[in-house]
Amino acid sequence: MNESLSSMIVPGVLWALVVFSVLSWGLLLIKSAQYLKLKTQNKQFSKAFWTAPDLLTAAEHATQYPGSLARIANSGFEAMAVDESPRTTQQLAHTINRSDRLERNLRQQIQKERRALEAGQAILASIGSTAPFIGLFGTVWGIMEALQSIGASGSASLETVAGPIGHALIATGVGIAVAVPAVLIYNFFLRRLKLAVADMDDFAHDFDSLAQRSAFAVSRQPIAHKHGQSVREAS
């Protein structure tokens, strides 16, 4: 039983590394499609939002378009639309003024979008950091088995030693070959994540400026925003 288990260690390590490699390249395709789709959606929404004639039309666009920026805008409009009429019962929503409530909603939605974009990043980081050690474990185990076999045979010639040890070193090579692409893919999407979050922060800042200029009211007022210019410049 022990000999059977021992003979399965190195093949098991190699198959585990193959699975890790498949996961890495699969995540590359999935995350690439995710970011490409998000970029297209945000571009379409931004064009519709900033060319809207008034805040009411912009609010309608926020509910109609997909994408992270549309969801951020929608959360902002929800904060602006909370009923401020006199109340007879205490409600927590009324204990926060509109400016703070808007800032909180925008920040919370950005965090939600960030968590969605971070999906799969932990897997890539884990593969990149553990694959070399898993391969090294397979190599150490293979060398141990090779030395035991050499000791049992009583022969220490170069041909007897080089073959089993060279075979055992394959696991380390495969582990490194799996880890390097995983680390590169992780760093690539980490950069994309930072850029996406920066874009969301910029949009949230512009949205907050726009809300302040409109006195936190969604009404038929023209949006003084030119394409390519920040609301901050207009205010």
From TrEMBL:
GO terms for cellular component: plasma membrane. GO terms for biological process: protein import. Its main location: membrane. Residues 92-119 form a coiled coil. It is a multi-pass membrane protein. Pfam families: MotA_ExbB. Keywords: Cell membrane, Coiled coil, Membrane, Protein transport, Transmembrane, Transmembrane helix, Transport. InterPro entries: ExbB/TolQ_transport (IPR050790), MotA_ExbB_proton_chnl (IPR002898). The keyword Nucleotide-binding does not apply. Residues 94-201 form the MotA/TolQ/ExbB proton channel domain. It is found in: Cell membrane; Membrane. The chain crosses the membrane at residues 12-30, 122-144, 164-190. Belongs to the exbB/tolQ family. This is Outer membrane transport energization protein ExbB. The lineage of its organism: Bacteria, Pseudomonadati, Pseudomonadota, Gammaproteobacteria, Pseudomonadales.
